[in-house]
Amino acid sequence: MTMTKRDVLELWFAEVWDARDISFLDKLLAPSLGQEDTVYGSLALRKDIPLLVEVFHRLIGPMKSEILVFLEDGDWACVNYRTTASGPDGDTPIKLDSLLMFRFDQGLIAEMISRIDSLALFEQLGQMPPDTLLGCFSGQSLTWK
After folding, report:
1. What DSSP line would sit under 42-79, residue for residue?
2. Which of 58, 123, 129, 143 has its CA 20 to 30 A from that of 21?
3. Rounded to 5 degrees, what are φ and ψ at 107?
4. What angle do CA 103, 28, 2 make, to 5 degrees?
5. pLDDT given for residue 38 in this prediction
């Protein structure tokens, strides 16, 4: 049975990101995607995905991702998804809504365009003030410790 694009993306989130099962990368990514190819825009190369998964888990703790909206157009699929976690200390709730666009080649992921709300993530982790964006719009500057 052939998997739909949505099936592939549900496995992408559930197995690679939530369960940290990196072996699924070879099952979900197109062979045309080389180890040195960029997959997350400027965020990561194909070979860096395991490290990126590990960094996110260290930052926010065990996570659960949920597809909120799924759209498909030809070789492309787009998801608006939500990632929730209890934070690295288990007591800092994280809720992050993001967008990902995927291009498929022969039923597998060949390219990604990512729009993660990093500012909201770092605000929730306490690394940025909770009103950082509002402060930026007011013309204020941040002073780093």
Report:
1. TS-BGGGHHHHHHHHHHHH-SEEEEEEEEEEETTEEEE
2. 123
3. 80, 5
4. 90
5. 76
